[in-house]
Amino acid sequence: MDSKFPFLSPIPDFPDDDDTGSSDSSLVFFQNLIQQAELLDTASSSKKKYVRRDRVGGHETLMADYFDENPKFSEDTFRHRFRMSKSLFLKIVSDVQAYDEWFQEGLDGRMKKSFTPLQKVTSAIKQLATGNPPDEGDEYLNMSERTSRECLEYFCETVCKRYGGEFLRRPTSHDIALLYQAHEDRHHLPGMLGSLDCTHFVWRMCPTELRGQYMRGDHQYPTVMLEAVVSQDLWIWHAFCGPAGSQNDINVLQQSPLFLAQRNGTAPNCPFQVNNHLYKRGYYLTDGIYPTWSVFVKSFPYPHDPNEKKFKRQHEAARKDVERAFGVLKSKWGILNRPMRSKTVKKIRSIVYTCLILHNMIIKDDGRAIAPVHIQDPPVEPVFDDTAYTELIDEDTHWRLKHDLVEHLGSLDLPHLEVDSDEE
């Protein structure tokens, strides 16, 4: 027998006994089944079977479930499954359809209607929200795995181009003024721009040649890092994802464009005053691994003075903003909380930035944004400033600012920060 399976050998002849007839018939039966399976495998490998998918029926089901006048599911159910309000979702569908013709409805090569923009965006949002494989929508949306994967890639690329300039923008002078005021009112820390930290995403399909660049000793699998600055409303003002090399916060900071605007002279001029001292730039709250730069404020590891203990409590409470933001991101967008299936860093960046943009859009749509309106600053010609880097890494300014913040908090009557007598 000419078999594709080398472990199958011709059926041997058995001696005649009482069970010879039944044994021979059973062996012949299974041998015929194997031959038929081989023929089917050969036929299917030479020509792929066409699967008829009811695209129109999938669209009608989607409309009846969520978008008709009397939909099957309520607004709360829609928000739970799509992670956003229905009005924001329909706005995104309209914008991406107008921005990229791939999302527009047309005809395929067989002159049949393609998927509607509603189906394509739904497939992409579902993959971002759940992190499930692309073939999950085959039964509900009647969409193949390949088309679902294309929906995700085109959607992420379009969202980054269409909304990145507004929802992943650097803080303008108008934004910084509002951030100063909001953080001083909530955290009692004047001049605070936000909290800076990093998080990891597991990269399941990391190529073998790149594993050494994305491994850490305390992680079992390759990871991609994200550096982010978060304000009190959980708005993400800075994001830097996917740097190669030894993965820790310091090495990511050395490659980050966080202070590029200060270096080339395009950063807005927004000084602030604390304890009767004027400072040129705002600062970020960080943990102990970051260097003692003038733009970083770290807590005291072992405070002794009561005012230092109050400052440590307030610093740790305010720095939870960035930890909360990472938790919200990974719980809302399941694709970030599950091992990444993309095989290139570029696609991972596109997915991560899309989730960040949608996160900020939801905050604005819910009315929780500190600076919901994007007011641009007048354009400034980039000019490299040699003194900016020296000012950024000035340790004397770091300690003076930290001392002024301790004195400022000590002068305020904040009962929730008062130190117990047994702690002194």
TrEMBL record:
One family name in Pfam for this protein: Plant_tran
Composition bias type Low complexity, residue spans: 1-11
InterPro entries assigned: Harbinger_derived_prot
Ranges where the record places region Disordered: 1-22
PANTHER family the UniProt entry points to: OS07G0546750 PROTEIN, OS12G0169200 PROTEIN
Name of this chain's protein: Harbinger transposase-derived protein
Native species: Helianthus annuus (Common sunflower)
